[in-house]
């Protein structure tokens, strides 16, 4: 699989490290303790397992050392979109 890095061009996947799903957003720690605890449990341990396209965080450690948000279909390995994580709007 090759990932088109915005700075380095098309590069082999071995140059990247996968962090995980880009969708989860850290919950607000203020509020009722039991609801905050439940929100953090969901944030840390529960993930969807979509069959189709999803967004993941990738680190280009052997290249420009930027974090990327890669939208791809894990069933076909098709890369649909790549953006710098710093410029990606929150989901």
From TrEMBL:
InterPro entries: SoxD (IPR006279), SoxD_sf (IPR038561). One of its GO terms (molecular function) is sarcosine oxidase activity. Gene3D superfamilies: Folate-binding superfamily. One of its GO terms (biological process) is tetrahydrofolate metabolic process. This is Sarcosine oxidase, delta subunit, heterotetrameric.
